[in-house]
């Protein structure tokens, strides 16, 4: 033990270390050398190398895990520290987050790794590309001073995503998030839909999917959104070959376990089956859904009512379009009655009619066949457990567009694709990180829309505001008019200086 020693040497301006371990081989005394890597903190014995990442080594105790705050040392540049940093985007996002319920949720989720969580969320929103580059972004951003304990080395991020993917942690997140975002007594109208996440990850949730006629290798991501606020409530995922109809019961069950009470659900046609209607009925959840044309009930209702739809008493207007809608009672399944809404969208019908008639002439169809096809053009049928005024039907159903906006934010703002993870734990952690980024972006975009401000444009302008770093003070550079306008859009003010 007494003969062990650590050797230090300078390479390219940085200090590196190795440990010399005397031993005997075939009776001869030899020195075995083990590389410790770059020195991060000589006094505490903190080192970093490719094999172990960041770790502690002492002659007395050997290799040990490094304290959490030591991982941030690995991101310090080897050369001179950057003294001018990108400021406005991170500062505004952080100050805005503190005005929302999410800041308390995130800081309580992983108290010892809170800086890493916030830094990754900010990177997810403000930057783009693989998380491999998160460390480089962090070095040049005010996030480095704001969140000094963040560990954004590539290996550390992978380990952190695995922690974030823990089922117990995710359950705790949703319970805390929902309690903060919505009052306990809130009863939600639900919007449910799924989207494909193409990937080649070797785990059970990757499978061939045939969704809407498109075949791909993917995992299906299911989002549940609150109908009134448009805010995401929950997510879950299934294998790519699991069809939507078979996911509704489990989704409702998981929502109930998170304390989400639902009184209404608006569903895409892919969720309609007799079993699902029974499940909604048993859980006392009213619903509105669309029928696919291949359904037996659709064919029966169309045959009985399509010919007589175009009557003045059935005419409504929606979004500048003339639509005929007729409400009739129907039986969905044994013992469960509902209302069917048979409609014809006249604009869609006109588009389809010309193409159909041209094809009818070319295919030499008979008059009866042509008339039969004409009656189906622009036709749609919806089923609801509730008696709805026909004027209110389409505005209610197209509230579903809110969930499409959420998917758009998830893919375009929260950078959920492409998937660059390995294994289920890191995949789950990635999805939660994207969900967190999505709820922040959704709330923020909702406030900016009324002011005609684009979210991406706002942060691009703010990134141009820099700050200069001194030992005891951060001096914020003057804001341009566009930067000032961005601050005003969120009712914030640019600071002049910030003590370190």
UniProtKB/TrEMBL annotation:
InterPro entries: RNaseH-like_sf, Transposase_11. Residues 190-438 form the Transposase IS4-like domain. PANTHER family: PTHR34614, TRANSPOSASE IS4-LIKE DOMAIN-CONTAINING PROTEIN. This is Transposase. It comes from Sphaerochaeta associata. The lineage of its organism: Bacteria, Pseudomonadati, Spirochaetota, Spirochaetia, Spirochaetales.
């Amino acid at each position: 033990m007494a003969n062990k020693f650590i050797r230090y040497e300078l390479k390219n301006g940085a200090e590196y270390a190795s440990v010399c371990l005397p031993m005997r081989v075939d009776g001869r005394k030899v020195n075995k050398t083990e590389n410790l890597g770059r020195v991060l903190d000589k006094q505490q014995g903190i080192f970093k190398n490719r094999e172990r990442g960041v770790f502690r080594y002492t002659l007395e105790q050997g290799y040990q895990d490094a304290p959490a705050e030591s991982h941030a040392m690995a991101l310090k540049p080897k050369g001179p520290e950057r003294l001018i940093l990108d400021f406005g985007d991170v500062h505004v996002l952080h100050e805005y987050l503190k005005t929302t319920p999410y800041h308390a949720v995130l800081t309580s989720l992983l108290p010892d790794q809170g800086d890493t969580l916030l830094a990754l969320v900010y990177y997810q929103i403000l930057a783009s590309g693989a998380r491999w580059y998160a460390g480089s972004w962090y070095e040049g951003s005010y996030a480095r001073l704001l969140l000094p304990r963040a560990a954004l080395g590539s290996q550390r991020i992978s380990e952190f995503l695995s922690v974030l993917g823990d089922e117990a942690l995710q359950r705790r997140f949703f319970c805390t998030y929902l309690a903060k975002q919505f009052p306990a007594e809130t009863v939600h109208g639900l919007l449910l839909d799924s989207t494909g996440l193409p990937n080649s990850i070797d785990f059970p949730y990757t499978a061939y999917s045939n969704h809407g006629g498109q075949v791909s290798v993917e995992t299906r991501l299911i989002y549940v959104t609150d109908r009134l606020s448009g805010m995401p409530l929950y997510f879950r995922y299934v294998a790519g070959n699991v069809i939507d109809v078979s996911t509704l019961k489990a989704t409702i069950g998981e929502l109930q376990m998170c304390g989400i009470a639902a009184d209404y659900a608006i569903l895409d046609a892919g969720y309609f089956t007799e079993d699902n209607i029974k499940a909604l009925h048993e859980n006392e959840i009213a619903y509105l859904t669309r029928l696919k044309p291949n359904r037996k009930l659709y064919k029966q209702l169309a045959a009985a009512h399509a010919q007589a739809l175009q009557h003045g008493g059935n005419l409504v207007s929606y979004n500048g379009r003339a639509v005929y809608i007729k409400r009739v009672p129907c039986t969905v399944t044994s013992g469960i009655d509902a209302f069917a809404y048979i409609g014809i969208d006249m604009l869609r019908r006109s588009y389809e009619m010309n193409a159909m008639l041209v094809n009818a002439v070319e295919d030499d169809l008979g008059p009866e066949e042509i008339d039969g096809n004409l009656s189906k053009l622009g036709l749609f049928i919806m089923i609801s457990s509730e008696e709805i005024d026909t004027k209110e039907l389409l505005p209610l159903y197209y509230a579903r567009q809110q969930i499409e906006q959420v998917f758009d934010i998830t893919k375009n703002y929260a950078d959920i694709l492409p998937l660059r993870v390995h294994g289920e734990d890191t995949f789950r952690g990635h999805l939660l990180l994207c969900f967190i980024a999505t709820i922040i972006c959704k709330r923020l975009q909702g406030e900016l829309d009324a002011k005609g401000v684009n979210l991406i444009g706002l942060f691009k302008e703010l990134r141009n505001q820099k700050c200069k770093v001194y030992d005891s003070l951060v001096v914020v550079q003057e804001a341009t008019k566009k930067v000032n306008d961005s601050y005003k859009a969120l009712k914030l003010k640019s600071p002049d200086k910030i003590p370190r």
